[in-house]
Amino acid sequence: MTTHISGGRRLPWTAVTAGIVAMTVSYAGPLAIILAAADAAGLSAAESSSWVWAVSIGAGLTCVGLSLWSRAPIITAFSTPGAAILVTALPQHGYAEAVGAFVVAGVAATVLTATGVFTRVLAKIPEGVVSAMLAGILFSFGTGIFTSVRSAPLLAGGMLLGYLLARRFLPTYAVVCALAVGLAVAGATGGLDVAVPGAGLALPHLTVPEFSVGALVGIGVPMLVATLAGQYAPGMAVLRADGYTPDERVVCGTTGAVSVLLAPFGSHAINPAAITAAICTGPDAHPDPARRWVAGVSCGVGYLVVGCFGSTLVALFTGLPGALVATLAGVALLGALSGSLVRTVADERGREAAVVTFLATASGVTIGGVGSPFWGLLAGLLTYFLVEARRGGDEPTAPAGDPEPAAGTTGKTAAAGR
């Protein structure tokens, strides 16, 4: 659907709507994960609000700028796997040290992607090990759904049922439907606190980065690996699947640079999106591929508007029942968890190392102030190379599966990133 605007030009409203839907889905679940991490670390309202502001502004600017530059629907987002890592890792380090890790991870991501080294480095790391690390990080979010069902059966059970029904009939809006059911049940049972003290425009809160080995190893390294493998790669694959071939170095390098600039205000990682990108890159957004770039601009403008009211979002989420937030985060990450588990066991030769990685990461063990994602990755790589050395590479490698849609296939099934 299009409509006339000044000068006889037409505004593709379907593309505008697709961008707004993509932006809404981006907030529906991942925002709960960010605020869960902020709450676990004991961040102040100002720090939490600034975090939401920073990731929103970063995603908005890159969406608008890259879409206008490429005339393609470049959808960016804030890293969901990165936020999931922080739920357990952030409380183990000072916030300023975490910000330092954000800066270093952003610089590394920028260099690796802008120079084209990323693809070569990723090829050196067994895919099953990386996927297993991500699956281990997300495991507790999945079990959190059923923990919430036990403590709040009507609320969490209703959300899970609403999510599953929506996955059957309205898969794009499944997380949004789960949120709607949760809000309805909480409102009906008196568990919804609609007061929003402190609501208003968000103000950026500067945190001077501090650098420590523990935070760099415990936060920076796992976040870099999870974001590059779990967001950058599938995000670019979705664009290629629908026929868009923007310069990967420019797209990924730009998001990395913006991450670095906004890290002192709380941005943990900005990256190309995958699932929400698929909303905007296909024919449902607009029949003409040359007009779909409007969806990227629409999504970016939505990010910018919502980001300006970050303090309102924080205040609203603070009033939600804990079971609602936990269930919402869990269902929002089910797709990423299932995709990671599939890729974890896809390669028979590296399966043992992947399982070790998963178990070590899911254990939540902390050694020397360094969290389990790093130790899981290290244990998996050590297992892989020891086992490979013993086998001498004689055994055939089973097909690794197709974790990312290849060019010419649909991008709707990408399950790694938002």
Report the major sheet. Answer: 2 strands, antiparallel
How many helical elements? Answer: 18
- Helix and strand composition category: mainly alpha
* pLDDT < 50 runs, ≥5 residues: 1-8, 393-416
Strands of the biggest beta sheet: in what spatial order? 1-2
Mean pLDDT: 80
Describe the protein in words:
There is one protein chain. The strands form two sheets. The chain has a two-stranded antiparallel sheet with strand order 1-2. A hairpin with a 5-residue loop joins strand 1 (2-4) and strand 2. It is mainly α and 418 residues long. Helices cover 67% and strands 3% of the residues. The longest helix has 29 residues, at 213-241. Helix 1 (13-28) runs antiparallel to helix 12 (275-281), helix 3 packs antiparallel against helix 11 (248-262) and helix 7 runs antiparallel to helix 15 (322-332).
Concise synopsis of the structure shown:
With 418 residues, the protein is mainly α.
Give a quick set of tags describing it.
single chain; 418 residues; mainly alpha; two-stranded antiparallel ribbon; two-stranded antiparallel sheet; 18 helices; 3% strand; globular
How would you summarize the topology of this molecule?
Elements: E1 2-4, E2 10-12, H1 13-28, H2 30-40, H3 45-70, E3 76-78, H4 80-89, H5 95-114, H6 117-124, H7 127-151, H8 153-169, H9 174-188, H10 213-241, H11 248-262, E4 270-272, H12 275-281, H13 293-307, H14 310-318, H15 322-332, H16 334-346, H17 351-362, H18 372-391
Antiparallel strand pairs: 1-2, 3-4
Helix pairs in contact: 1-12, 1-13, 2-3, 2-4, 2-15, 3-11, 3-13, 3-14, 4-10, 5-6, 5-10, 5-11, 7-8, 7-10, 7-15, 7-16, 7-17, 7-18, 8-9, 8-15, 9-15, 10-18, 17-18
